[in-house]
Amino acid sequence: MDLSNPTSRWEELRNERPDTHEFLGALAEAEFRAGKTGVEPGAVDAEGLGEAEDEDMVEWQGDENDLISFASDELRREYLARHAESLLQGKLEEGPEEFASSFRTVSNRAVQLGGVGENIPEVILLLVAAGRAERVFSLFSELANRAVEEDRESGRSLFWDLYQPLTNVLHRLDIGPEELAQNAAPILRASSRDMMGGQLHGSVEKMARQSKERADELYDTLISHPDPPVKSLAANALDGLSAWDFEEAHRRAIRLTEEEAPILKRVGIGSLGKVDYQDQDPSFLRETWERLEELVGDSDKETDYVLVRTLGDLLTAFESTTGTEGDEIPSTDRVGGVLAEVAGRTHQRGKITAGQGVC
């Protein structure tokens, strides 16, 4: 389903064919209740069957051709999503577990009827959050707080039923930088040990890519937040900003690497590895290398591991730029050697720390 306008046909029929629209809504409700596609006509509590037939919106199915069903899977998905929205709207005023439990039940049934891989959970969240985005996000944050104390493997946490669809559509919701920063910390903690933990970071980058003004607001809000994990999202805001003003994003990243606070320095180092140097003046990559070399020479257990990741991220950029006359870009062999050096001392430091822990 197209997330930019997921129920366009539903809206069109509501405005232009109210009788057909009412019947199709009742049909979606009947299929949802029955848990199957195709129901007896008597199960549909609405007029308009004839009109829906005339417009080829429905079809007859079953061994005896006695079951009415949507003629189009796409149309079914739109009406299922809207029905799911109606069931969940009243749950927004309840607690996070109640809302998430209802979302799990409703979205699973909608996917069962509408098909896997059609963004149905995302569409349902978009519809529910229209005009109530801050409420939906705050419920999710509360759920994340409780998920930290739960074991995901036990299947008890409802947090994960919402995590992927919500992070997939977060950039489409009316969430301001302050609301994002206020609610992000528990989400980051709850997802920190999962392979999907980086999805919130990706959502912030998408938000920042919507406009330069939004990128600036996100960066200023996130980098000034007192919680280090929330500050780390500023790197994604800078990545988004680089799509609008690469020079400014790069300047801010370099400046952050000069800060005393380790978290700010880590954000800066990480940002230098995230931004895309392709099609940019080679002088930016040269400046990045010069600053990274300085950091390599100043061993710091608080930042070396980020330095390793950034050097690894930049290998492709160095490879594509090496050989540009007069730009003093190092070879990938040289970069790889420095990467190995920093990785080695980071590994050694970890072994020493582990040994001290045993003692």
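Next protein, fold it too.
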Amino acid sequence: MIDFKKFELNAEINSAMKNIYPKKEAVEIFSAICNGKDITKYGDKVDKVMAYMKHIGQKAVDGDVQAKAEINAIRTMMIEAPLVKRLSLFDFMGEKIQVGYDEEVRYKVYQLQGKKSGEQANSGSFPFATANWRTEVMTEFTTITGGFVVDYREVATGNTDAIAVANEQVVTDMLNQMFYKIMVAYHTGIKNATINNYSEGAGITKIALDNVLKKARRFGNLTITGDYSVIEQLSDFAGFTTTTNTVMFSEAVMEEIRKSGLLKFYKGFPVVEIPNTYNVTKFNNTKEFFETYLPEGLLLIVPSGATSPLKIGIKGGLTSMSGTDISLRAEVTRFDMEFGTKLIKEQAYQIGLLSDTRYEVNKY
């Protein structure tokens, strides 16, 4: 029988790993079972793992506190692994910084002051530039939370499908909350910056988009990204007007739109749709359909090869707690991760942003 009793959690997200002693492979096997992955390579270990999980599941149903703690620790590791992996999606949105619980996120902001070059007579004197910098501390951390009502009978009976669904929902909810904070940080920081590359209006117009692209292009190769609601508006800009004022599309553009319904490139820049799922627990303002997790009206122009003005901080790892909710009369498990964002105002102009004012930005 596999012994899960001795385990040690490494809460530092810097390693992006969790250690469990003495049988880490058992957690991997149970995770593969829940997620419907190939388990033939594990041989008879699969039956041993399932037998043990059913055993501690039944003990948890009977009120064994230690069994509940074991199941909670195992599910925490099962949730953190895909969550940390998906956090890599933020790399193209900003500079991701990962620190431990007892550390703080600090970064330097450099500024050049004075005359940097010029022309003068032989042996003449001229002023030199100086580089100044300041240290800023990211203090805008909030706790991103997810969770579910626990039914230990699912473990006791081996109903792994239900476990996989609950775990996936926690990962999706927490990731969308983080992505929402990033989008709002971009909108608030860029719009309020003294010097910015920002445009807003009732809809995305070709003139506004071209102006933002022109300014952002000098910072590097660009990627145009946003929700489907704004991306699909770009298809109308790819045509050309004939002498009879008829808008026509090239065969290549028509093929792109035919395959995916969206334009893949605009003026040589890749167009990338940000997945934005529905929050089926919340209606939109008109109460006629569901609300989306992320803002629908923001179109970002992100240059590559430049240091991003947006800093994304993750402190520590995923933590969990289980207990009884009196109002629900049920066992619940809560998962938390400390997450923060900071937009450097002096560099906000590097990112282009268009806002379709027909859609709300603040959803919470």
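About the second fold: The chain is about 30% helix and 30% strand.
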